[in-house]
Amino acid sequence: MKIALIGAGPRNLMAFERLVYWALDRKWADEVKILIFDPFGIGGRVWNPNQNHELKMNSLASKITLFTDDSIQMEGNPHLGPTLFEWATTLGKDFIENNNFKRQKLLLEEIDHLTKYSYSSRALFGIYQQWFFQHVEKRMPSNFSIEIHSNLIHNVKFDNEKYILLTDELAYQVDAISAALGEGMDEPSDAEKEAQAFAEAHII
Known about the structure:
There is one protein chain. The protein has 204 residues and is of the alpha/beta class. It has helices spanning 10-26, 84-97, 104-113, 122-137, 190-201; strands at residues 2-6, 32-37, 56-60, 119-121, 144-149, 155-159, 162-166, 171-174, 176-179. The strands form three sheets. It has a four-stranded parallel sheet, with helices on one face. The protein has a three-stranded antiparallel sheet with strand order 6-7-8, with no helix packed on it. β1, α1 and β2 form a beta-alpha-beta unit. α2 packs antiparallel against α3 (104-113). The N and C termini lie far apart (51 Å). The model has no long low-confidence stretch (mean pLDDT 92).
């Protein structure tokens, strides 16, 4: 079976987690290949770890988690894990120091001042998502495999009981899709493109 996750933000990372733990709980024997599509990689555009550090979330760090617990009505057993705040103040520093993030110093300073009443930066949540992905990936059963693609999906067709995902250059055939596309993004006008080009040409 091939499953496509279009968008690599929180919703599809949680879908990935559920697939892995359903497989473990139910001892799935079939081969499963998961294809993740996102031009911005794990975390997606909104939570890109290298973005402007001043951009903040609108929920408390202690209230943010990608893990499940007994309060959720769902199929399968919950898989407990740290909130964003708990992760940041226990595992976060080591993870940031061991990876090449653009604003490492600012991220480490943020963790030093983070409390359970803090609003985290979007970048820090993006890093938490990358850690979460690696955490779940390590627990995949042997019959699971995963591919991450930077291709942008332009269209989806359904043909002969299969979904066909179309990019500029390739087509991918899968059995199931989870599409979590995040916030829309308007294309800039011609005047905005000219202003952007001028700004980029005159950066000091």
